[in-house]
Amino acid sequence: MALVKCPECGKDVSTTAKKCPHCGFVPPMNDVAWNCPEWPTPPPAGMSEAEWQRRLAVATAEETRREWDTIKTWLAIIVFIFLASFIAYISGCDTENQ
Ligand SMILES: [Zn+2]
Asked: How many CA atoms, within 13 angstroms, populate the side-chain half-sphere of residue 36?
């Protein structure tokens, strides 16, 4: 049976436990909850806690950067469409007035 870190108290908890024996924390979704990817994952065998935390931080930063890239791309598209519509509107007014 595997051990995971309790997200509340940080102590080791069996993945088969229904709640944390140290602080009584109950996973929001029983059974699979202890393996929720959003929770801190214990380091793989042979890797130090510090090294694992560093890799997690790098992975999280990378994920955040990709999300921002997506947001910026969509913002650019929206601004472009807005500008194109605005220019087309201005041009249309000019043509009608002449
Ligand atoms: Zn706990």
From this structure: 14
What digits encode the pLDDT tens for the residues 16-73? 777 888 998 887 665 555 666 556 666 777 888 888 888 888 888 998 999 999 999 9
Longest Cα–Cα distance in the chain? 81
Q: How far is the CA of 21 from the centre of ligand 1 (A)?
A: 7
- Which residues line ion ligand 1, judged by CB < 5 Å? 6, 8-9, 20, 22-23, 25
The rounded distance, in Å, linking the Cα atoms of 8 and 25 is 7
First CA to last CA distance, the chain:
81
Ligand 1 centre distance from Cα of residue 36 (Å)? 15
What residue ranges do the domains of the chain occupy? 1-42, 47-98
Cα 97 to middle of ligand 1, angstroms: 73
